[in-house]
Every structure is written in C-alpha cells, then in structure tokens.
Amino acid sequence: MIKLKVPISEEEIRKLKVGDEVLLSGIIVTARDQAHKLMVEEKPDFIRPYLKESVIYHCGPVVRKNPDGSWTFVSAGPTTSIREEPYQADVICEYNVRGIIGKGGMREKTLNGLKKCGAVYFHAVGGAGALIADAVKRVVTVFKLEEFGSPEAFWVIEVEDLPLIVTMDSHGNSLHEKILKESEERMKEILKLK
Questions:
Q1: What is the tally of structural domains in the chain?
Q2: Whole-model pTM above 0.85?
Q3: CATH number at residue 157
Q4: Which residues are part of the catalytic machinery?
Q5: I need a surface site. Which of 82, 121, 143, 190 has the fewest CB within 10 A?
Q6: How far apart are CA 122 and CA 105, in angstroms?
C-alpha cells in the first residue's frame, strides 16, 4: 500500500502504475458536472489554490450541517466519471491537478491529459459511501453551495487514508480499457462471433 499526501509532486505521480493501491491523505476537492463546466468556461481563481498538486473527487456527497455551523460528510461515494470526459483533461492541465477519483474510469481524451500533465485516475469503491465518509476528517470550506446545490458544490475536504486503486496512470495505461477489450473478446468467443 502506497501512502500519498497532498500536495503531490508530478515526480511522485509518475511513479504510480495501474494496479497500485494507495492510501490518500490531505486536502482534496469534490467536483461534478457544473463545477467542471465552470472550471473550463470561466476558470475561477477561488478554487486554484485547492487544486494545485491536489486531487478532484467525482462525488456528490450527502452532508449534515452541525449546530456550530460546520459540516459532516454522511456519505461520500464516487459518482460515474465519464460525464466529465469533455472537460477533464483541460481541468487537469489548467489547474495542475495530480489525480482524479471516481468510478467507471474515463476515456482517451482524459488518458492523454493524464500523460501530458502528470496525473492519475484513482478508482474508489462504489456503494461504500458511508465507509468512505469515515475517511473525511473535516470540511475545510465549500464553494457554490447556494448556486449549485450540495451534490454539485465544490467541497474542499481533508481526508485521511482514503483507500484507492490506480486504474489509469500517467504512462498511457488504462485498466478500464484493458478489461473492456478482454470482455469484448470473451463475449465474441462465447457467442462464436470470431
């Protein structure tokens, strides 16, 4: 198990390979559809300091506001990443992001962005939102909550030992692509389409 702490250097990220198991700690940012669109179209400065050499988590958390005004993550499961494919490579390079967390993987455009700018895609376990929320130690701040709503807001959070697997690396390797090709070949064999 590899322990990674934000901020993460490009050198550290380029050492990672598909299949590596990671425990991630430090300040990361949740971002989904509206956040990615905003980052590409308007390039807001407010989020830059939190993204530099950090990680974006594709997550629409369930949160609870505490009596003292602070927030607690109740559930923090990954959301499907492919929706961010049109934006992700641009966001990685523009904001100097070192990693993306989500589920389901991404495609060629993002894979090229990972390679070009030095980042990886981490897969988080779907269906384990309550368990993943235990790794969220505090909410640092939140942006665009009123405008975007809770699932789409930028939640800046501190995580400790968040368990992840590298499924796309900065060397052009994608476990998702490999499994897809193997599955298609197997299906052809089963259906005798070869």
A1: 1
A2: yes
A3: 3.20.130.10
A4: 36
A5: 190
A6: 8
